[in-house]
Amino acid sequence: PFSNTPPVSLTTIVKVEPGDAELLQGNPVDLVCTVNGRKGHQVWLDVKPADNDRTTYTLGRITGADNEPFPFRIPKLTTGMEYRFRAGDHPFPKWYKIEARPPLAFTKIQLAVTPPDYTKLKPRAFDAMSEEVQIFQGSEMEMTITCNQPVTNGTVFLKGLEPIVLAKTRDDKVWSARTTVTGGNALRFTARSKYDEQVDAPVNFELMPDREPVIQIISPKARTILEDGGAPTLQFTVQDDYGVQEAWIERVPAGSIKGTIGEVIEKWPLNETSFSKDWLSTRLKMDRGEPIVLRGVAKDNYPYGDRRTQSSAVLFEPVNMTNALQKEAAEM
Predict the structure, then answer these.
(1) CA-CA distance, 9 to 198, in Å (whole number)?
(2) Average pLDDT over residues 274-287
(3) Among 11, 27, 104, 173, which is least packed, fewest CB within 10 Å?
């Protein structure tokens, strides 16, 4: 009675597939029992889901062929389960266990956004899977993903930048990276598991731009006639939400296109959101009938490139003595 020799049987279970396994939840599962045995012996499958009672399926009778397979398909694996095959008089059929592995998924995508210092805006944190995301142009952003299972790598894609590789934290379910956001309106996160499964998630955001300063010419509104020796005047204002760095008045040749860089006549270093100037030239005088063309120019605190904003041109013309005499003669 204490012998280790298995009992003699007319039917033997040769192999069970997949045996103990971890399989992707939601996929079908193919269970196969290979048997050698006596013709006419019955084969059964017992399935015991983690969330339900045991069910027994009759798979058929042995025909007597060598290594005869008896397959059974579960259409969709929804939960873990135990199962065993029974065949004829095969003794002590073994229970096997299948773990249902959920599909790889993001459980959190977190964005920590720090606006540029010059804006004096407070940092903000976003749950990117449930909140609308607003990012001020030029912000530093830390991106952190959390997955429902360990991953081997992660990447973030943002238009205009090379792919951003996420780095693993102490938890191989949590990966993060930092970048500076100067453009775009959408991020795409990807992660891959050791099972070579990949998950993707788009995150749209609203880019809050640092708009250019607004320059308004208060006076003069139209071209102005100056007598010889007369000095031009210009009254203008500059406004910017996050600070004007400097403003100046420059002179450009008559007929210049918009992007022409002129001669700086007078400049004011600033660090404020609004500036107003009622200016009278001490350098420029109407001389020898040459017109004077001026405009207001400003530079804000925007740190990404040399950005200048200019007003429309203001024209100061000399008195045309020939035209004045002709007009006087015509009226006589």
Answers:
(1) 48
(2) 92
(3) 27
List, edge to edge, every strand of the sheet that includes 29-36.
12-17, 29-36, 68-74
Q: What SS3 class is residue 261?
A: coil
Per the DSSP assignment, residues forming a β-bridge with 315 are 293
- Residues 6 or more apart in contact with residue 233 via CB below 8 angstroms: 219, 220, 278, 279, 280, 281
User: Which residues, in sequence order, are bridge partners of residue 208?
Assistant: 136
Contact 217, 249 (CB under 8 A): no
Tokens 């049987």 belong to residue:
9
Does residue 100 sit in helix, strand or coil?
strand
Question: CA-CA distance, 154 to 146, in Å (whole number)?
Answer: 10
The backbone region for 148, taken as left when phi is positive above 0, alpha when psi lies in -120 to 50, beta otherwise, is alpha
Segment 250-265 mean pLDDT: 90
The pLDDT tens digits for 147-172 are 999 999 999 999 888 999 999 999 99
Q: Please name which of 221, 201, 96, 71 lies closest in space to residue 145, comparing C-alpha atoms.
A: 201
179 band by pLDDT with thresholds 50, 70 and 90: very high
Tokens of 162: 């090379």
Positive or negative, the CA dihedral 49, 51, 54, 58 is: negative
Strand partners for 267: 248
How many residues make up the chain in this entry? 332
